[in-house]
Structures are given as structure tokens and as C-alpha cells.
Amino acid sequence: MSAWVGGLPPAAAARVARQRASGATGSFLSAPAAAAVAAAGLVPAGEVFGCLVQNIGWTGGLCGNWSGMGGIGPGGWGWTSPVVTTGDPGGNRNGSGPYVRAVEGAWNGALHRMLLEAAALEADGVVGVVVRRATLEGTAVEFTATGTAVRAAGRTGAPPASPWATDLTAEDCAAALQSGVAPRALVLGLSVATKHEDPQLAQQRMSWSGQEVDGLTELVTRARADARRRLAADARRHTTGGGQVVVSGIGLTSFETVCNGNAKDLHAEALFTGTLLQRDPTVPVPAGAARRVLSVLPLNR
């Protein structure tokens, strides 16, 4: 592989060099979005992109009923298996720990490379960030992060060493800045919950009586709860001064793995993403931005 420049692959470094040399600035902003960031004292600095390809596989591990009970095997009829999440002590033993760490590493890796491009363009931050995940072949998965780098108009001082990132739209970001609240970082909460298919769960999954499948309700509920805890933990990693997270992405998927011959483990994967907002003097807020009360901040995207 060719030599990287400032943490960027050669193609990315060349793209940054072309943008800086041409004087032309690209962006993903619509006309209203460009007007919104201008009103907040920002100007586009260029399109930025980061990608990372990683093998994301399920390495397996102990069966869900064992990993959740510290090695105590299942009981007879009427016994129900526990739910184990990534954040529980048994999370590593059923395979979800390594899986979640691999996904988190790739997600943050693509985001980090995008922010390196933004820093090379002397940007203060990146708005409208979108992180995508696409399977290439087998277990190889590409994570990409795209957005529009922005900088304070007329800035005379040095750019920040670490630009901020937000998945808020340019309009929402401008509204936040004009209210004195600045984006700090894009944050992620991911968890996988696992439950062994015990006799009660198997019976309920096969039933045609329209009854609630208790085990699956518990499975998805625990997955979401743990993902929310991990989202809050990721936000705390970026700040010691408090703040608020605007949740913009919520997802849930499920899959099964074979366990101990013909038995099954059921898994629910919950994902939360959002932007950490903070009143923090170290985060560049355009000096010319008005300080109006933020009345509407969408929570459903």
C-alpha cells in the first residue's frame, strides 16, 4: 500500500490537495442549507469522506444459556434462559463483545478519517454527516462517512486541531449555533442481546394463538436499553462538562446462530446514533452568530 499522508490514504490526501489548490469549494449543501450556515457565520470548506473496510464476523462463543449463568446449564420444562447483552459480564462469552467492538472500531475509524480530511481543510466542523455500512463480500464490510466541512467565516486564528462532527442538517446545526449550543461529536451506542431458545420460547414462536412472545420482547427491550447506555457512555467519553445528545438514528435487526447441535441462540442488535451538543467555550462558535432561544430541535431523525 502506498505511503499515507497525515493519517490519510494517498487518494484522500490528493483530493484534499486538489480542493486547496483549486480554490473551488465543494459541498453537499442545498441552497437553503448553504444560506442557513452562512447565517450562523460559517462557510463551506469542502466535501469530506472517510472509509474503512473491516472483516465483521460472528466468532461464536458459549451458548447463550451458559454465558448468562456463569456456566450453569439449563433446567427442565418451565425454565427460561436469561438474556445477555454486550454490556453484561457474559457479553464477551457469547461472541457479542468482539463483534460489537469490531463494528464500533470500524464506525469510528471511518469517522476519524473523514475528520482528518476536514482538519486538512482547516475546518471547524462537519455538518450533515452520514455513516453508511455496506457488505462487500463474505464478512468484509465497508464503513463510509461523508459530510460537508465548514469553517468560521473570516477566521484569523489557527483552526482547531480536532473539528467537531454532527449528523444534524445544516439548518438544524445553524439553529443550534445561533442559540449558543455547539455540536461536540457524533456518538454511537451499539449492543447485541442474546437469548437461548428455551422450551417456552420455542413453544411461543410456533404458536398460532396470537400470544405475546415474552422471550423476544425481553430480548429486544434489553438490546435497546443496553445500546442507550452505551450511547450515553460514548457521549461522556467526549466531555466532562455535561451536554445533551440529540438522537437521530435508531435501528434494530435480529439473527440466529446454531448452539450445541440443533439448539439456537437468538440475537437482537440495537443501534443508536446522535450528536452531542454542549455549551462549551472550547468548541468554536461563530462570533457573529446571534444568540436566540432554540425553540425547535428535531428528535425524530
What is this structure's SSE topology?
Elements: H1 10-22, H2 31-39, E1 42-55, H3 64-67, E2 83-85, H4 96-120, E3 125-137, E4 140-152, E5 164-165, H5 170-178, E6 182-196, H6 199-206, H7 214-237, E7 244-259, E8 263-278
Parallel strand pairs: 3-5
Antiparallel strand pairs: 1-4, 2-6, 3-4, 6-8, 7-8
Explain what you see.
The structure is a single chain. This protein is an alpha+beta fold and 301 residues long. It has seven helices and eight strands; from the N terminus they run ααβαβαβββαβααββ. The chain has helices spanning 10-22, 31-39, 64-67, 96-120, 170-178, 199-206, 214-237, and strands at residues 42-55, 83-85, 125-137, 140-152, 164-165, 182-196, 244-259, 263-278. The strands form two sheets. Strands 1-4-3-5 form a four-stranded mixed β-sheet. It is elongated, with a radius of gyration of 23 Å. It starts with 9 loop residues before the first helix and ends in a 23-residue tail after the last strand. The model is unreliable at 290-296 (pLDDT under 50). It comes from Kineococcus endophyticus. Belongs to the UPF0145 family. InterPro entries: UPF0145_dom_sf (IPR035439), UPF0145_YbjQ-like (IPR002765).
Q: What letter string, H or E per element, gives the SSE order? A: HHEHEHEEEHEHHEE
CA distance, first residue to last residue:
38 Å
What is the average of the pLDDT values? Answer: 84
Tell me about the biggest sheet?
A: 4 strands, mixed
Poorly predicted tracts of residues: 290-296
Q: Give the proportion of residues in helices.
A: 25-40%
Number of helices: 7
- Which secondary-structure class do the elements indicate? alpha+beta
The dominant shape is elongated
Radius of gyration: 23 Å
Beta strands, count: 8
Protein name: Heavy metal-binding domain-containing protein
Organism: Kineococcus endophyticus
InterPro entries: UPF0145_dom_sf (IPR035439), UPF0145_YbjQ-like (IPR002765)
Pfam families: YbjQ_1
